[in-house]
User: Fold these one by one.
Assistant:
Number 1:
Amino acid sequence: MRAIWKGAVSFGLVSIAVRLYSATEEKDIRFNQVHRDDGGRIKYKRVCSIDGEEVAYDDIAKGYDLGGGEMVILTDDDFADLPLTTSRAIEVLEFVPAEQVDPILYNKAYYLEPDKTAAKPYALLRDALTNTERVAIVKVALRQREQLATLRVREEVLVLNTMLWPDEIRAAKFDILDEDVSARPAELAMAGSLIESMAADFDPSTYTDNYREALQEVIDAKAAGREVVQPEEAEEAPAAAVDLMAALRASVERAKAARGESAPAAASAAKKTAAKKTAAAGDSDDEVAEATPIKRTVAKKATPAKKATAPNKATPAKKATPAKARKSA
């Protein structure tokens, strides 16, 4: 890795010399715009919209649009006079509990590597953060911009997470959420069962970017001159949900089946039964009982099935009586 920044962490009267490294990298497959006929790279020229002439990079300045066709032009000297006191320092402002920092504020992560002479104060700050279960709120200037950030410990290394400023977070305002929408007790209980059936310990290594892998295969095939064959997979169309309770039940059964757990044999019949009961009972309190395991529902429905077989067996016996009467006559 190559260091992108060098400075010091200001921890009270203690100064810790560190180097900054990007902790993440994007794995997206990048493409260049090319001419379809000959593969030539497409180039763009920097052209002034007023005189139509090409502009050299050294003649380009930053402009702020005031509206109405007015523009304020800023030069490098204007940016040099800005008060960036944290240009070469990571200033610790305070220490807060980690759970108080909303994850939506996090932006980008960096590793901090200490200089050889700063190994001991580096370890001191790292261990103190671990023991107190807190993160440090800091200010740092990166790429000519002052940013709010946190210092936390990950795998015995200090990690700097740059953060968005509070006014950069948009407010979530949706009129539909202002309506009085609530879940029924039976639906809430079944949703809890679904969550429990899908509960697991998070392991990010088990997830892969299927799209990127498939795209890489296409690129490799093109490069090797092979024909790209895309196998057709028959996807089962999702069944239309009769109601929320039926959809939750089906989801629980599918989650159990995916984990290899035993599921009731008549799961499909239970879904239909639940749909009919929900439509008949409406929002009655009896629906709370439907949130119990599906085995009860299947057991109740098994009784009519046995009663139905008895008349079928008795039918031939009744028909035999008239036949014997004809013979004797």
Note: The longest helix spans residues 294-328.
Number 2:
Amino acid sequence: MPEQTTSVDEAVTAPQFDRLREIRATEPERLGEVLASRTRRRPLERDGKLFIVAADHPARGALGVRADATAMADRYDLLRRLVVALGRPGVDGVLGTPDIVEDLALLGALDGKVVVGSMNRGGLQGASFELDDRFTAYSAASIAAAGLDFAKLLVRIGLGDPGTAATLEATARAVTESAALRLPIMLEPFMSDRRDGRVVNDLTADAVIKSVAVASGLGESSAYSWLKLPVVDEMERVMASTTLPTLLLGGDPTGHPDETYARWGDALALPGVRGLVVGRTLLYPGDGDVAAAVDVAAGLVHTAEPARR
């Protein structure tokens, strides 16, 4: 018989949301208790691969998906979509800021999952200080104290923007603190610039390779450093530029899904690639079927045969 799927509308009941709101208002200490008591697992305990669903966009004010500028504004709808995704086989975990992680914990969605805490959200989308990306969410210490499994940060390098210096310094400090705690930390680097008032990432292979070189050298030890990289042309050259374990960034939902999946599949077979981190592309698919989109990506991650160097 075909496996039953839960629709987004059915994923979380009204009483569950009632309970979540009540605990937040009257028993906030329960949040830490629920996180501390969740069932944990080793990140690479299965086949050495990871498939993480990302939901850290709202804290940067990035609420748009395709032509809908407020697609992620409804927190209840987002949580339902995340619960559907986390319930699918092959989904290893979630990436989020404290508000998202704590909501999911109260909904019972994090048992047996790898939980990645997002650290830096101060560089709000469209702000004049966007590249001076202060660490305003988790710290390495708070991630460890909450019993989460991974840290993650975005490090955009704008050579023409003085805010980059503070971002690099803060990132190096976060990498050092994570290594001291033996906490894996995902660095998502980009070479970035402002065009027509917007921060734009350079997605050429040469630019990604440069960002990898800079990010890899941050901190007093790279022992616990991972990379989170976009899938670009000449991905073989990109992966030849690092020995750090790497997860692929799904990116914004553009183009036909079949073409996107094919690019992911090719990149997942490269040496050093350990999996995939995807958010809006799968949580808000064009046809609305979250479970089906997540299942395709999970199949790519957990059946990919790595190539040899």
Note: The two ends are 41 Å apart (CA to CA).
Number 3:
Amino acid sequence: MSDIHYKSADGLDLFAKSYGSEDAPLSVLCMHGLTRNHKDFEPMIERLGPQYRFIAVDVRGRGQSDWATRPETYSPQVYAQDMFALADQLQLSRMALIGTSMGGLMAMIMAKVAPERISGMVLNDVGPVVNPSGLARIAAYSKDPKPASTWQAAAEKVKAAQADAFPGFGDDDWMAFAKRTWREEPDGSVRADYDPEITRSLGEAKAGLMTRFAMWRLFGSLRSVPLLVLRGETSDILTKSTAKRMARRHPDSELVTIPDRGHAPLLDEPTAISAISTFLQRLETK
């Protein structure tokens, strides 16, 4: 593992972590969801092993990356620009993308802007249409992240917000989830590891008819990029009908459902690991 520090076009200090050898046959850029960070991918990376180089990011406003000085830059378009700045610093002429939720929107934008640099992409529980009920649920728990007094209290908050998506999780699982997504302050309190201003982008996701049309056009422009769509079986963000429509409209795609998962799978589930491993092996030969 090695830390990566790089600059955004507007001067923010941004962070990513590299796992695996720089000489690996495939570099995989991993982009997290709205309130998560690079640690979200560590369970997946641990299970996939060291065959590839995984680069997991802290999108601006999360984790070890700077908070934005202009909150209006918390948008997938700007995030995608940041990812290209990272790729340019690392001299990645070609890479695979794994994007969870918001990270999947970033992946679609990147593949539209520079398809020649993208060998393939995994969209984790996201598509051109975001289900409004799921969006409302995310907004309810993320817009006002009150601190917790202890790590145990933080784990209980995470469980209260995510229990429906991860049935069967035990106390250790919830504590591990909290440790990946919260941070301890000097006074001993624990808070969610992101700038509350990031939630302003939720308003942009409330798609009207024209926005939906534009998003399906964006998705349609990605036909040349191999695609793996992962959907949580009980997801309230990516509906079953949207996922099936994505698979029908993309000529080089596969749709895999992750059992007993809502939004969004952690990607360490056996079904997810099998699908991602097979997909990356295919990309390795491209």
Note: The longest helix spans residues 270-284.
